Amino acid sequence: MSTTQPFAVILAAGRGTRMKSTLAKVLHPLVGIPMVAHVVNAARSAGLVPVLVVNHQQEAVRAAFAGSDTLFVTQKSTRGTGDAVASALEVLPESGTVVIMSGDAPLVQAKTVEALLAAHGTAAVTVLTVQLDDGAHYGRLERDASGEPVRIVEAGEASAEQRRITEINAGLYCFDIAWLRTVLPTLLPHAPKDEVYLTDTLERAATEGRARVVVHSDFEEVAGVNDRFELATARGVLQARIIEVHGRAGVDFLSPGTVVVEQDVVIGPDVSISAGVVLEGDTTIGEGSIIGPHCHLIDANIHAGVVVHSHSVIHCAVVHPGASIGPFARLRPQAIVCEGARVGNFVEMKKSTLGPGAKVSHLAYIGDAMVGEGANIGAGTITCNYDGIKKSQTTIGAGAFIGSNSALVAPINIGPGAIVGAGSVITKDVPANAVSIARGSQNNIEGAAERFRSRAKIK
Ligand code: UD1
Ligand code: CA
Protein backbone atom coordinates (compact mmCIF):
# COMPACT_ATOMS: atom_id res chain seq x y z
CA MET A 1 0.00 0.00 0.00
CA SER A 2 1.27 3.42 -0.91
CA THR A 3 1.22 5.98 1.87
CA THR A 4 0.80 8.91 -0.53
CA GLN A 5 -2.60 10.46 -1.10
CA PRO A 6 -4.78 8.73 -3.69
CA PHE A 7 -5.74 10.53 -6.89
CA ALA A 8 -9.09 11.66 -8.21
CA VAL A 9 -9.17 11.77 -12.00
CA ILE A 10 -11.63 14.48 -13.07
CA LEU A 11 -12.92 14.24 -16.64
CA ALA A 12 -12.99 17.73 -18.10
CA ALA A 13 -11.89 17.40 -21.71
CA GLY A 14 -15.25 17.39 -23.46
CA ARG A 15 -16.57 20.28 -25.50
CA GLY A 16 -20.02 20.29 -23.94
CA THR A 17 -21.88 20.83 -27.20
CA ARG A 18 -25.27 20.84 -25.49
CA MET A 19 -24.34 24.03 -23.61
CA LYS A 20 -24.50 25.92 -26.94
CA SER A 21 -21.67 28.11 -25.72
CA THR A 22 -18.27 29.30 -26.91
CA LEU A 23 -17.00 28.64 -23.38
CA ALA A 24 -15.93 25.08 -22.52
CA LYS A 25 -18.63 23.47 -20.41
CA VAL A 26 -16.53 22.87 -17.31
CA LEU A 27 -15.48 26.55 -17.19
CA HIS A 28 -18.99 27.92 -16.86
CA PRO A 29 -19.14 29.98 -13.68
CA LEU A 30 -21.17 28.63 -10.80
CA VAL A 31 -21.49 30.86 -7.71
CA GLY A 32 -18.19 32.58 -8.47
CA ILE A 33 -15.91 29.71 -9.52
CA PRO A 34 -15.79 27.54 -12.64
CA MET A 35 -18.00 24.45 -12.59
CA VAL A 36 -15.03 22.08 -12.50
CA ALA A 37 -13.52 23.91 -9.50
CA HIS A 38 -16.38 22.57 -7.39
CA VAL A 39 -15.37 19.05 -8.37
CA VAL A 40 -11.71 19.81 -7.63
CA ASN A 41 -12.68 21.19 -4.21
CA ALA A 42 -14.77 18.11 -3.38
CA ALA A 43 -11.87 15.85 -4.38
CA ARG A 44 -9.45 17.82 -2.20
CA SER A 45 -11.84 17.81 0.76
CA ALA A 46 -12.03 14.03 0.43
CA GLY A 47 -8.23 13.91 0.75
CA LEU A 48 -7.56 13.18 -2.93
CA VAL A 49 -5.06 14.77 -5.32
CA PRO A 50 -7.00 16.09 -8.34
CA VAL A 51 -5.86 15.13 -11.84
CA LEU A 52 -7.75 17.01 -14.53
CA VAL A 53 -8.13 15.43 -17.96
CA VAL A 54 -8.25 18.34 -20.40
CA ASN A 55 -8.49 19.01 -24.10
CA HIS A 56 -11.12 21.53 -25.15
CA GLN A 57 -9.92 25.06 -24.18
CA GLN A 58 -7.27 23.41 -22.07
CA GLU A 59 -5.15 26.57 -21.67
CA ALA A 60 -8.08 28.26 -19.96
CA VAL A 61 -8.83 25.23 -17.81
CA ARG A 62 -5.18 24.99 -16.75
CA ALA A 63 -5.07 28.74 -16.05
CA ALA A 64 -8.09 28.47 -13.76
CA PHE A 65 -6.00 26.31 -11.42
CA ALA A 66 -2.63 28.03 -11.81
CA GLY A 67 -0.57 27.81 -8.65
CA SER A 68 -2.63 25.02 -7.09
CA ASP A 69 -1.55 21.42 -6.59
CA THR A 70 -3.83 20.20 -9.39
CA LEU A 71 -2.25 17.90 -11.99
CA PHE A 72 -3.19 17.90 -15.66
CA VAL A 73 -3.14 15.38 -18.46
CA THR A 74 -4.17 16.07 -22.02
CA GLN A 75 -6.57 13.72 -23.75
CA LYS A 76 -5.31 13.95 -27.31
CA SER A 77 -8.69 13.65 -28.96
CA THR A 78 -11.91 13.42 -27.02
CA ARG A 79 -12.86 9.85 -27.80
CA GLY A 80 -15.09 9.20 -24.83
CA THR A 81 -14.89 8.77 -21.07
CA GLY A 82 -12.97 5.49 -21.30
CA ASP A 83 -10.34 7.11 -23.50
CA ALA A 84 -10.20 10.10 -21.11
CA VAL A 85 -9.36 7.85 -18.15
CA ALA A 86 -6.83 5.93 -20.27
CA SER A 87 -4.97 9.16 -20.92
CA ALA A 88 -4.67 9.76 -17.16
CA LEU A 89 -3.04 6.38 -16.46
CA GLU A 90 0.43 7.79 -17.08
CA VAL A 91 0.29 9.93 -13.91
CA LEU A 92 -1.27 7.24 -11.70
CA PRO A 93 0.66 4.73 -9.62
CA GLU A 94 0.86 1.15 -10.92
CA SER A 95 -1.64 -0.11 -8.38
CA GLY A 96 -3.97 1.09 -5.67
CA THR A 97 -7.30 2.86 -5.89
CA VAL A 98 -8.31 5.82 -8.04
CA VAL A 99 -11.53 7.84 -7.88
CA ILE A 100 -13.04 8.99 -11.19
CA MET A 101 -15.25 12.07 -11.13
CA SER A 102 -17.04 14.02 -13.86
CA GLY A 103 -16.06 17.62 -14.34
CA ASP A 104 -19.71 18.32 -15.12
CA ALA A 105 -21.15 17.05 -11.83
CA PRO A 106 -20.38 20.06 -9.61
CA LEU A 107 -22.72 19.26 -6.73
CA VAL A 108 -21.02 16.07 -5.56
CA GLN A 109 -19.85 16.44 -1.96
CA ALA A 110 -16.69 15.12 -0.31
CA LYS A 111 -18.62 12.91 2.09
CA THR A 112 -20.19 11.04 -0.84
CA VAL A 113 -16.75 10.43 -2.38
CA GLU A 114 -15.51 9.22 1.02
CA ALA A 115 -18.46 6.83 1.36
CA LEU A 116 -17.75 5.41 -2.10
CA LEU A 117 -14.08 4.89 -1.22
CA ALA A 118 -15.04 3.22 2.03
CA ALA A 119 -17.32 0.77 0.19
CA HIS A 120 -14.80 -0.05 -2.53
CA GLY A 121 -12.71 -2.66 -0.70
CA THR A 122 -11.30 -5.25 -3.12
CA ALA A 123 -13.73 -4.53 -5.96
CA ALA A 124 -12.39 -3.76 -9.44
CA VAL A 125 -14.97 -1.03 -9.89
CA THR A 126 -17.42 0.57 -7.50
CA VAL A 127 -20.02 2.83 -9.07
CA LEU A 128 -22.44 5.28 -7.47
CA THR A 129 -26.04 5.02 -8.66
CA VAL A 130 -29.24 6.81 -7.82
CA GLN A 131 -32.95 6.19 -8.43
CA LEU A 132 -34.57 8.44 -10.99
CA ASP A 133 -38.10 7.80 -12.25
CA ASP A 134 -37.25 9.14 -15.68
CA GLY A 135 -33.65 8.13 -16.31
CA ALA A 136 -33.42 10.83 -19.00
CA HIS A 137 -29.99 11.01 -20.66
CA TYR A 138 -28.22 9.03 -17.93
CA GLY A 139 -26.73 5.57 -18.30
CA ARG A 140 -28.91 2.82 -16.77
CA LEU A 141 -27.56 0.17 -14.39
CA GLU A 142 -28.85 -3.24 -15.40
CA ARG A 143 -29.08 -5.88 -12.67
CA ASP A 144 -29.76 -9.63 -12.95
CA ALA A 145 -32.66 -11.48 -11.35
CA SER A 146 -30.77 -11.75 -8.09
CA GLY A 147 -30.04 -8.03 -8.06
CA GLU A 148 -26.35 -8.31 -8.96
CA PRO A 149 -25.04 -5.58 -11.30
CA VAL A 150 -24.60 -6.69 -14.91
CA ARG A 151 -23.75 -3.68 -17.06
CA ILE A 152 -24.37 0.02 -17.68
CA VAL A 153 -26.31 0.87 -20.84
CA GLU A 154 -26.14 4.41 -22.22
CA ALA A 155 -29.52 6.07 -22.77
CA GLY A 156 -28.94 6.45 -26.49
CA GLU A 157 -28.24 2.73 -26.93
CA ALA A 158 -30.83 1.35 -24.51
CA SER A 159 -33.81 -0.73 -25.59
CA ALA A 160 -37.27 0.47 -24.61
CA GLU A 161 -37.18 -1.95 -21.70
CA GLN A 162 -33.73 -0.81 -20.55
CA ARG A 163 -34.82 2.79 -20.76
CA ARG A 164 -37.48 2.03 -18.15
CA ILE A 165 -34.78 1.16 -15.61
CA THR A 166 -34.87 3.74 -12.85
CA GLU A 167 -31.38 3.16 -11.41
CA ILE A 168 -28.94 5.47 -13.16
CA ASN A 169 -25.15 5.83 -13.26
CA ALA A 170 -24.08 8.98 -11.38
CA GLY A 171 -20.68 9.02 -13.12
CA LEU A 172 -18.68 8.66 -9.86
CA TYR A 173 -16.47 5.59 -9.52
CA CYS A 174 -13.60 3.92 -7.64
CA PHE A 175 -11.29 1.68 -9.62
CA ASP A 176 -8.55 -0.79 -8.91
CA ILE A 177 -5.78 0.88 -10.92
CA ALA A 178 -3.92 -2.31 -11.90
CA TRP A 179 -7.17 -3.83 -13.15
CA LEU A 180 -8.06 -0.65 -15.04
CA ARG A 181 -4.69 -0.76 -16.81
CA THR A 182 -5.47 -4.20 -18.20
CA VAL A 183 -9.11 -3.56 -19.13
CA LEU A 184 -9.17 -0.06 -20.65
CA PRO A 185 -7.10 -0.96 -23.74
CA THR A 186 -9.49 -3.81 -24.55
CA LEU A 187 -12.70 -1.75 -24.62
CA LEU A 188 -14.32 -1.39 -28.03
CA PRO A 189 -15.44 1.98 -29.37
CA HIS A 190 -19.13 2.67 -29.91
CA ALA A 191 -20.58 3.97 -33.16
CA PRO A 192 -21.39 6.52 -34.44
CA LYS A 193 -18.73 8.70 -32.74
CA ASP A 194 -16.27 5.88 -32.08
CA GLU A 195 -16.25 6.70 -28.39
CA VAL A 196 -14.83 4.41 -25.73
CA TYR A 197 -17.15 4.27 -22.73
CA LEU A 198 -15.75 4.04 -19.22
CA THR A 199 -19.09 2.52 -18.30
CA ASP A 200 -18.22 -0.64 -20.27
CA THR A 201 -15.74 -1.56 -17.53
CA LEU A 202 -18.64 -2.47 -15.26
CA GLU A 203 -19.72 -5.44 -17.35
CA ARG A 204 -16.14 -6.80 -17.28
CA ALA A 205 -15.90 -6.40 -13.52
CA ALA A 206 -19.33 -8.01 -13.09
CA THR A 207 -18.28 -11.14 -14.97
CA GLU A 208 -15.34 -11.39 -12.59
CA GLY A 209 -17.63 -10.86 -9.58
CA ARG A 210 -15.75 -7.64 -8.78
CA ALA A 211 -18.37 -4.97 -9.53
CA ARG A 212 -19.81 -3.12 -6.57
CA VAL A 213 -22.66 -0.57 -6.48
CA VAL A 214 -23.31 2.12 -3.89
CA VAL A 215 -26.88 3.39 -4.14
CA HIS A 216 -27.09 7.06 -3.24
CA SER A 217 -30.33 8.63 -2.06
CA ASP A 218 -29.95 12.16 -3.43
CA PHE A 219 -30.24 12.62 -7.19
CA GLU A 220 -29.84 16.39 -6.86
CA GLU A 221 -26.26 15.95 -5.60
CA VAL A 222 -25.07 13.85 -8.51
CA ALA A 223 -26.97 15.60 -11.30
CA GLY A 224 -24.81 16.27 -14.35
CA VAL A 225 -24.73 19.65 -16.06
CA ASN A 226 -25.12 19.19 -19.80
CA ASP A 227 -27.13 22.23 -20.86
CA ARG A 228 -27.92 25.71 -19.62
CA PHE A 229 -31.08 24.61 -17.82
CA GLU A 230 -29.14 22.03 -15.83
CA LEU A 231 -26.54 24.74 -15.15
CA ALA A 232 -29.23 27.04 -13.75
CA THR A 233 -30.62 24.20 -11.64
CA ALA A 234 -27.16 23.44 -10.23
CA ARG A 235 -26.68 27.10 -9.44
CA GLY A 236 -29.90 27.09 -7.43
CA VAL A 237 -28.75 24.08 -5.40
CA LEU A 238 -25.29 25.54 -4.70
CA GLN A 239 -26.83 28.89 -3.77
CA ALA A 240 -29.16 27.23 -1.29
CA ARG A 241 -26.17 25.43 0.28
CA ILE A 242 -24.21 28.68 0.64
CA ILE A 243 -27.17 30.45 2.19
CA GLU A 244 -27.67 27.60 4.63
CA VAL A 245 -24.04 27.84 5.79
CA HIS A 246 -24.31 31.61 6.34
CA GLY A 247 -27.76 31.35 7.87
CA ARG A 248 -26.53 28.83 10.45
CA ALA A 249 -23.65 31.19 11.21
CA GLY A 250 -25.98 34.06 12.08
CA VAL A 251 -26.65 35.88 8.81
CA ASP A 252 -30.22 37.04 8.26
CA PHE A 253 -31.53 36.74 4.68
CA LEU A 254 -34.77 38.66 4.26
CA SER A 255 -35.50 37.10 0.88
CA PRO A 256 -33.13 34.15 0.42
CA GLY A 257 -34.56 33.12 -2.93
CA THR A 258 -33.62 36.43 -4.54
CA VAL A 259 -29.97 36.85 -3.54
CA VAL A 260 -26.72 35.79 -5.16
CA VAL A 261 -23.93 35.01 -2.70
CA GLU A 262 -20.81 33.63 -4.32
CA GLN A 263 -18.72 30.86 -2.85
CA ASP A 264 -15.85 32.91 -1.38
CA VAL A 265 -17.92 35.69 0.21
CA VAL A 266 -17.32 36.06 3.97
CA ILE A 267 -20.19 37.39 6.10
CA GLY A 268 -20.04 38.08 9.84
CA PRO A 269 -22.76 37.25 12.36
CA ASP A 270 -25.82 39.45 12.74
CA VAL A 271 -25.54 40.82 9.22
CA SER A 272 -28.84 41.45 7.44
CA ILE A 273 -29.09 40.88 3.68
CA SER A 274 -32.16 42.27 1.92
CA ALA A 275 -33.93 41.15 -1.23
CA GLY A 276 -32.08 41.15 -4.54
CA VAL A 277 -28.59 41.59 -3.10
CA VAL A 278 -25.68 40.26 -5.19
CA LEU A 279 -22.42 39.54 -3.34
CA GLU A 280 -19.54 38.52 -5.57
CA GLY A 281 -15.87 37.60 -5.49
CA ASP A 282 -13.90 38.18 -2.31
CA THR A 283 -16.51 40.39 -0.68
CA THR A 284 -16.41 40.46 3.12
CA ILE A 285 -19.06 41.96 5.37
CA GLY A 286 -18.39 42.64 9.06
CA GLU A 287 -20.60 41.87 12.03
CA GLY A 288 -23.92 43.65 12.31
CA SER A 289 -23.83 45.41 8.95
CA ILE A 290 -27.01 45.89 6.96
CA ILE A 291 -27.11 45.47 3.18
CA GLY A 292 -30.26 47.02 1.75
CA PRO A 293 -32.34 45.82 -1.19
CA HIS A 294 -30.72 45.34 -4.63
CA CYS A 295 -27.15 46.22 -3.68
CA HIS A 296 -24.33 44.79 -5.79
CA LEU A 297 -21.00 44.19 -4.04
CA ILE A 298 -17.94 42.89 -5.91
CA ASP A 299 -14.70 42.28 -3.97
CA ALA A 300 -16.00 44.79 -1.43
CA ASN A 301 -14.60 45.05 2.08
CA ILE A 302 -17.39 46.16 4.38
CA HIS A 303 -16.42 46.44 8.04
CA ALA A 304 -18.70 46.01 11.04
CA GLY A 305 -21.77 48.12 11.69
CA VAL A 306 -22.02 49.59 8.20
CA VAL A 307 -25.32 50.39 6.55
CA VAL A 308 -25.44 50.07 2.77
CA HIS A 309 -28.76 51.47 1.65
CA SER A 310 -30.63 50.12 -1.36
CA HIS A 311 -29.35 50.04 -4.95
CA SER A 312 -25.73 50.76 -4.14
CA VAL A 313 -22.84 49.31 -6.14
CA ILE A 314 -19.53 48.72 -4.35
CA HIS A 315 -16.59 47.36 -6.32
CA CYS A 316 -13.13 46.81 -4.80
CA ALA A 317 -13.76 49.46 -2.15
CA VAL A 318 -13.37 49.56 1.64
CA VAL A 319 -16.04 50.83 4.03
CA HIS A 320 -14.98 51.28 7.66
CA PRO A 321 -17.14 50.74 10.76
CA GLY A 322 -20.23 52.80 11.24
CA ALA A 323 -20.17 54.36 7.78
CA SER A 324 -23.33 54.75 5.72
CA ILE A 325 -23.56 54.27 1.96
CA GLY A 326 -26.39 55.06 -0.45
CA PRO A 327 -29.13 54.63 -1.45
CA PHE A 328 -27.97 54.69 -5.09
CA ALA A 329 -24.26 55.20 -4.32
CA ARG A 330 -21.42 53.85 -6.41
CA LEU A 331 -18.04 53.08 -4.88
CA ARG A 332 -15.46 52.17 -7.49
CA PRO A 333 -12.03 50.59 -7.01
CA GLN A 334 -9.84 52.08 -4.27
CA ALA A 335 -12.60 54.11 -2.71
CA ILE A 336 -12.07 54.12 1.06
CA VAL A 337 -14.84 55.37 3.30
CA CYS A 338 -13.53 55.90 6.84
CA GLU A 339 -15.27 55.36 10.13
CA GLY A 340 -18.63 57.05 10.50
CA ALA A 341 -18.42 58.78 7.10
CA ARG A 342 -21.47 59.11 4.89
CA VAL A 343 -21.83 58.68 1.13
CA GLY A 344 -25.35 59.56 0.05
CA ASN A 345 -27.53 59.12 -3.00
CA PHE A 346 -26.15 59.45 -6.51
CA VAL A 347 -22.59 59.86 -5.30
CA GLU A 348 -19.72 58.21 -7.18
CA MET A 349 -16.32 57.69 -5.56
CA LYS A 350 -13.16 56.34 -7.19
CA LYS A 351 -9.55 56.07 -5.90
CA SER A 352 -10.45 58.42 -3.08
CA THR A 353 -10.51 58.43 0.70
CA LEU A 354 -13.35 60.00 2.61
CA GLY A 355 -12.02 60.78 6.11
CA PRO A 356 -13.67 59.80 9.37
CA GLY A 357 -17.09 61.38 9.83
CA ALA A 358 -16.87 63.26 6.50
CA LYS A 359 -20.02 63.61 4.45
CA VAL A 360 -20.79 63.64 0.77
CA SER A 361 -24.52 63.33 0.87
CA HIS A 362 -25.92 64.02 -2.58
CA LEU A 363 -25.11 63.94 -6.30
CA ALA A 364 -21.31 64.24 -6.32
CA TYR A 365 -18.25 62.81 -8.06
CA ILE A 366 -15.18 62.27 -5.89
CA GLY A 367 -12.25 60.90 -7.91
CA ASP A 368 -8.53 60.84 -7.05
CA ALA A 369 -9.22 62.77 -3.87
CA MET A 370 -8.29 62.78 -0.18
CA VAL A 371 -11.08 64.20 1.93
CA GLY A 372 -10.14 65.05 5.53
CA GLU A 373 -11.95 64.18 8.72
CA GLY A 374 -15.34 65.82 9.21
CA ALA A 375 -15.30 67.64 5.85
CA ASN A 376 -18.66 68.32 4.23
CA ILE A 377 -19.00 68.09 0.47
CA GLY A 378 -22.14 69.80 -0.85
CA ALA A 379 -24.59 68.44 -3.38
CA GLY A 380 -23.39 68.47 -6.97
CA THR A 381 -19.68 68.87 -6.15
CA ILE A 382 -17.31 67.51 -8.78
CA THR A 383 -13.61 66.84 -8.37
CA CYS A 384 -12.48 67.56 -11.93
CA ASN A 385 -9.72 64.95 -11.91
CA TYR A 386 -9.26 64.53 -15.65
CA ASP A 387 -8.23 67.19 -18.16
CA GLY A 388 -8.56 64.88 -21.13
CA ILE A 389 -4.91 63.84 -20.90
CA LYS A 390 -4.03 62.97 -17.33
CA LYS A 391 -5.57 62.39 -13.92
CA SER A 392 -4.77 64.78 -11.04
CA GLN A 393 -5.30 64.79 -7.29
CA THR A 394 -7.59 66.83 -5.08
CA THR A 395 -7.07 67.22 -1.35
CA ILE A 396 -9.72 68.63 0.91
CA GLY A 397 -8.58 69.32 4.48
CA ALA A 398 -10.26 68.26 7.68
CA GLY A 399 -13.41 70.20 8.51
CA ALA A 400 -13.54 71.98 5.13
CA PHE A 401 -16.94 72.85 3.68
CA ILE A 402 -17.51 72.68 -0.07
CA GLY A 403 -20.64 74.56 -1.16
CA SER A 404 -23.10 72.89 -3.52
CA ASN A 405 -22.39 72.61 -7.21
CA SER A 406 -18.71 73.43 -6.93
CA ALA A 407 -16.14 72.24 -9.45
CA LEU A 408 -12.72 71.61 -7.91
CA VAL A 409 -10.28 71.57 -10.81
CA ALA A 410 -7.39 69.23 -9.96
CA PRO A 411 -4.58 69.35 -9.05
CA ILE A 412 -5.94 71.37 -6.17
CA ASN A 413 -5.68 71.71 -2.39
CA ILE A 414 -8.48 72.97 -0.22
CA GLY A 415 -6.99 73.70 3.21
CA PRO A 416 -8.41 72.44 6.50
CA GLY A 417 -11.41 74.43 7.72
CA ALA A 418 -11.75 76.33 4.41
CA ILE A 419 -15.16 77.21 2.99
CA VAL A 420 -15.89 77.18 -0.72
CA GLY A 421 -18.95 79.16 -1.80
CA ALA A 422 -21.69 77.33 -3.70
CA GLY A 423 -21.33 77.25 -7.46
CA SER A 424 -17.60 77.99 -7.42
CA VAL A 425 -15.13 76.79 -10.02
CA ILE A 426 -11.95 76.49 -7.97
CA THR A 427 -8.73 76.44 -9.95
CA LYS A 428 -6.27 77.77 -7.33
CA ASP A 429 -5.43 76.32 -3.93
CA VAL A 430 -7.51 77.59 -1.02
CA PRO A 431 -5.57 78.23 2.22
CA ALA A 432 -6.66 76.78 5.54
CA ASN A 433 -9.70 78.50 7.05
CA ALA A 434 -10.12 80.83 4.01
CA VAL A 435 -13.45 81.47 2.31
CA SER A 436 -13.21 81.13 -1.44
CA ILE A 437 -15.88 82.14 -3.92
CA ALA A 438 -15.28 81.82 -7.64
CA ARG A 439 -18.39 82.55 -9.67
CA GLY A 440 -20.00 85.37 -11.62
CA SER A 441 -21.09 88.11 -9.19
CA GLN A 442 -24.79 88.69 -8.81
CA ASN A 443 -26.38 91.89 -10.13
CA ASN A 444 -29.93 92.78 -8.94
CA ILE A 445 -31.66 95.46 -11.12
CA GLU A 446 -34.62 96.93 -9.23
CA GLY A 447 -37.93 96.95 -11.15
CA ALA A 448 -36.37 95.56 -14.32
CA ALA A 449 -38.73 92.58 -14.43
CA GLU A 450 -41.75 94.87 -14.76
CA ARG A 451 -40.13 96.79 -17.63
CA PHE A 452 -39.14 93.56 -19.35
CA ARG A 453 -42.70 92.22 -19.27
CA SER A 454 -44.33 95.46 -20.54
CA ARG A 455 -41.91 95.64 -23.48
CA ALA A 456 -42.80 92.05 -24.37
CA LYS A 457 -46.55 92.99 -24.41
CA ILE A 458 -46.09 95.95 -26.81
CA LYS A 459 -44.50 93.75 -29.49
C1 UD1 B 1 -21.78 9.92 -18.63
C2 UD1 B 1 -21.91 8.39 -18.53
C3 UD1 B 1 -23.35 8.05 -18.12
C4 UD1 B 1 -23.69 8.73 -16.81
C5 UD1 B 1 -23.44 10.22 -16.87
C6 UD1 B 1 -23.52 10.82 -15.48
C7 UD1 B 1 -20.37 7.45 -20.16
C8 UD1 B 1 -20.21 6.81 -21.48
N1 UD1 B 1 -21.59 7.79 -19.79
O1 UD1 B 1 -22.66 10.34 -19.65
O2 UD1 B 1 -23.49 6.65 -17.98
O3 UD1 B 1 -25.04 8.48 -16.46
O4 UD1 B 1 -22.11 10.52 -17.36
O5 UD1 B 1 -23.45 12.21 -15.51
O6 UD1 B 1 -19.38 7.64 -19.45
N2 UD1 B 1 -15.25 13.79 -21.15
C9 UD1 B 1 -13.90 13.81 -21.41
N3 UD1 B 1 -13.43 13.25 -22.57
C10 UD1 B 1 -14.26 12.67 -23.48
C11 UD1 B 1 -15.65 12.66 -23.20
C12 UD1 B 1 -16.11 13.21 -22.03
O7 UD1 B 1 -13.11 14.31 -20.62
O8 UD1 B 1 -13.75 12.19 -24.51
C13 UD1 B 1 -15.73 14.40 -19.92
C14 UD1 B 1 -16.72 15.51 -20.18
O9 UD1 B 1 -16.03 16.74 -20.28
C15 UD1 B 1 -17.62 15.44 -18.95
C16 UD1 B 1 -17.54 13.99 -18.51
O10 UD1 B 1 -16.43 13.43 -19.16
O11 UD1 B 1 -17.13 16.28 -17.91
C17 UD1 B 1 -18.80 13.20 -18.88
O12 UD1 B 1 -18.99 13.27 -20.27
P1 UD1 B 1 -20.42 13.49 -20.92
O13 UD1 B 1 -20.25 13.51 -22.38
O14 UD1 B 1 -21.10 14.61 -20.26
O15 UD1 B 1 -21.11 12.09 -20.51
P2 UD1 B 1 -22.67 11.84 -20.31
O16 UD1 B 1 -23.30 11.71 -21.64
O17 UD1 B 1 -23.23 12.79 -19.37
CA1 CA C 1 -22.56 14.67 -18.50
Give a short summary of the structure.
The protein has 459 residues and is α/β, with parallel strands linked by helices. It is 20% helix and 29% strand. The strands form seven sheets. An eleven-stranded parallel sheet has the order 12-15-18-21-24-27-30-33-36-39-41, covered by helices on one side.
Q: How would you sum up this structure, described in words?
A:
This protein folds into two domains: 7-222, Spore Coat Polysaccharide Biosynthesis Protein SpsA, Chain A; 228-436, UDP N-Acetylglucosamine Acyltransferase, domain 1 (3 Solenoid), CATH 2.160.10. The longest helix is centred in the middle third of the chain and has 21 residues, at 228-248. The chain has an eleven-stranded parallel β-sheet with strand order 12-15-18-21-24-27-30-33-36-39-41, covered by helices on one side. A nine-stranded parallel β-sheet has the order 14-17-20-23-26-29-32-35-38, with no helix packed on it. The chain is elongated. The chain is an alpha/beta fold. The chain is built from ten helices and 41 strands. The mean pLDDT is 97. The relative contact order is 0.07. A hairpin with a 2-residue loop joins β2 (29-30) and β3 (33-34). Residues 102, 104, 224, 226 line the site of calcium ion (CA).
